[in-house]
Amino acid sequence: MKKKILSAKVFLLVSTIAFILACTQNNDEQNDQLFDCPALQANVGSICFVQNQQGVLNANCECEVTVTYDCPTLQLNIGDSCTTANGMDGKINANCECEAENTTQYDCPALQLNIGDTCYIQNQQGTVNSNCDCEV
Fold it and tell me: Which residue among 1, 25, 57, 67 is the one 20 to 30 A from 88 at the CA level?
């Protein structure tokens, strides 16, 4: 009788250990079974982010971002930097037009001076000539 009780206890102990081991699988194996995209620990259709833009995971586990613009034909948003037809720096306005930031136009834009303006070269005062050179 003691032998049967001892055998039953050993069987119960071995069964319990086997059950515990079967329930504690490797986390990576569990993640593979739980997620469509185990490397990302996410499923197809889950929200994701790329460069601070929200997207959705596709079937290839890639984050697809749908970009929307205030001005779709320009692929720009209001306030984005742009260059006017005259070559001046500007910003996109509410009408989706590139509006110059600085409306001042110079004869010599590289110097931001006009012909006849005072200029300095090697610490000497000069005047901007028609070739946009500082002439001392």
Answer: 67
